[in-house]
Design brief:
CATH superfamily of one domain: Periplasmic binding protein-like II
GO molecular function: DNA binding; DNA-binding transcription factor activity
Keywords: DNA-binding, Transcription, Transcription regulation
Distance between the termini: 46 Å
Helix content: 40-55%
Shape: elongated
Strand content: 15-25%
CATH class of one domain: Alpha Beta
Family: Belongs to the LysR transcriptional regulatory family.
GO cellular component, one term: cytosol
Structural class: alpha/beta
Protein name: Transcriptional regulator (LysR family)
CATH topology of one domain: D-Maltodextrin-Binding Protein, domain 2
CATH architecture of one domain: 3-Layer(aba) Sandwich
Radius of gyration: 23 Å
């Protein structure tokens, strides 16, 4: 069946390997290879380039057809969910794009509430940056993505969840621990650990508002590494309260200047979304409204 071959092709592209795709799909590697070969033979084109050193990549025609294939698979998923809904049997899969702090602090709460009501819906998670999540939504790789309002594609349908304040984090024995609010100017001479990831723009805005230039000692991408460095007393940092408040052996305080990122869920089109996706979005808004 062509649908199965479409599923095989998208999985091979997603994981970049016939072997890994076979494991994910519970198929033999030869069955995966046969599915791709038969699809190429039927269409009379080459869809994938197999290179021992570079791995697997799409040909030009492969790149052009993949978005349409994903759209067909998404449509089939919606059909299956609609049929299941009409017979009072829930089924389906929701693919969610998320970033680190949303994965650890928001997603578990949502899943617990959703699965109590809809235990038969399956989930697939993709973790990445703001930019990657937007790309995944546009290309149809995911159904829903955690985004920061104002930093995603304006064509997406966006559903705000919470506002996440930016706070200063420091070692528990730092003098800042005696304060309820830390003046932004007090950070000028502090060894500063500057995140290079998704929320650096928020931090730059805070320093611009405070009219100071931070004394950057380290620039680090990984959030967990930054938290560990703060724990060891290597410097102070600024980051989202949602993430930093969950880290042990560090203190956080509000800043004299404020900045918040509004975390939301987005989908490419609510009107085109599957029943499961619409239900998930409704439950998510209810959870954080409470």
């Amino acid at each position: 069946m062509t649908i199965v071959r479409f599923e095989v092709l998208t999985k091979v592209v997603e994981v970049g390997s016939f072997t890994k795709a076979a494991d994910k799909l519970n198929m033999t590697q030869s069955a995966v290879s046969h599915a791709i070969s038969s699809l190429e033979s039927e269409w009379g084109v080459t869809l994938l380039i197999r290179d021992r050193r570079k791995g697997i990549s799409l040909t030009d025609i492969g790149q052009k057809t993949l978005p349409h294939i994903r759209e067909i698979l998404n449509r089939m998923e919606k059909i299956n969910q609609e049929v299941a809904l009409s017979t009072n049997l829930e089924t389906g899969t929701i693919r969610i794009g998320t970033f680190a702090s949303a994965s650890s602090c928001l997603l578990p709460k949502l899943l617990v509430t959703f699965e109590k009501k809809h235990p038969n819906i399956e989930f697939i998670f993709y973790e990445g940056t703001y930019e990657e999540i937007s790309e995944w939504l546009q290309s149809g790789i995911i159904d829903i993505g955690f985004v920061v309002k104002g930093q995603s594609n304006p064509e997406f349908d966006v559903f705000p969840l919470i506002k996440d304040q930016m706070v200063v984090a420091f070692h528990s024995e730092h003098s800042f621990a005696q304060q309820t609010t830390v003046e932004i100017k007090a950070l000028k001479d502090e060894p500063f650990i500057m995140p290079t990831g998704m929320y650096q723009s928020h931090i730059r805005e805070l320093f611009e508002e405070g009219a100071i230039q931070p004394s950057v000692r380290f620039e680090v991408h990984d959030c967990a590494t930054i938290a560990n460095m703060v724990q060891e007393g290597l410097g102070v940092t600024i980051g989202p309260e949602l993430f930093l408040s969950t880290q042990s052996n560090i203190e956080i305080r509000a800043l004299s200047v404020t900045s918040a990122r509004e975390i939301a869920l987005a989908c490419s089109s609510l009107s085109e979304a599957s029943p499961a996706v619409k239900t998930f979005l409704a439950i998510a808004q209810d959870v954080f409204r409470e």
